Amino acid sequence: MTPGLDATILAHALRSLSLPRTVYTYGSVGSTMDLARPLLKTLPPEQFPVLLVADEQRTGRGRMGRPWMAPPGTALLVSLVLQPTWLQPAEAVYLVWMAAVALCEAIETVTPLQPVLKWPNDLLLPVGAPPALTLAKVAGLLLEVNSTVDHLAWAIIGCGVNLTSAPPADQTRYPATSLAAAGVEVDRMALLIALMQRIDGWYQRLAAGERDALFGAWRSRLVTLGQQVRIETAAGLVSGLAEQVEPDGTLLVRQASGELCPVTTGDVGL
């Protein structure tokens, strides 16, 4: 088990970055996302962006409301609260891409591993050995936003990375792994600092209008493209070849009928 993170030490380590301005660290919590929301009502604007980090998460969740629980010290558990009022509501997806690309880059900075992305927001690592080599989830991202008609009022990015353990197979929909299972012991502070450095860089680039660069970086890591997929959507199951992804994040799937089906959200199985 890795030791807890100290807010003062962490804030000092991140002092050269434009974000965050405020850091909170916790021991055992239900969910960092749940702790983040009240801060939007109680903290003055000058204290944002806000970073929350926890040692243990008891009632966290991932996409589709699935549980994301982590025993003490076994995962990097982070929520980042932003007020990107310069983004339009339809551009909120850029924040997911930003976090996904930044996390890939951070892992590559502190380890020899090269994670890939499963559309829309899961990080995968190869597990096993040929010919039984497969991909398993090592991290997930979650985005919550609130917007007006013409801009985002706030956004909370949740991030969970399996450092030394992963949920058992009977508790996950798809295979899961950890950085330790991939053969790498990672210092949690080092990974967090690398992540915030990468987020800081991409956030500034995004604010400067570099949307195409971010989209290209995200798209280049999508292992989903060129794969046969099964996607559970609100309208039903979509299956076929994941051919392309649009600049707004829509996945285009070529079905057996030959029809090209656009998918904006869903749960992907490879």
Automatic annotation (TrEMBL):
Keywords: ATP-binding, Biotin, Ligase, Nucleotide-binding. Its EC number is 6.3.4.15. Residues 8-207 form the BPL/LPL catalytic domain. It is an enzyme of class 6 (ligase). This is biotin--[biotin carboxyl-carrier protein] ligase. Coiled coil: none annotated. It comes from Candidatus Chloroploca mongolica. The keyword Magnesium does not apply.
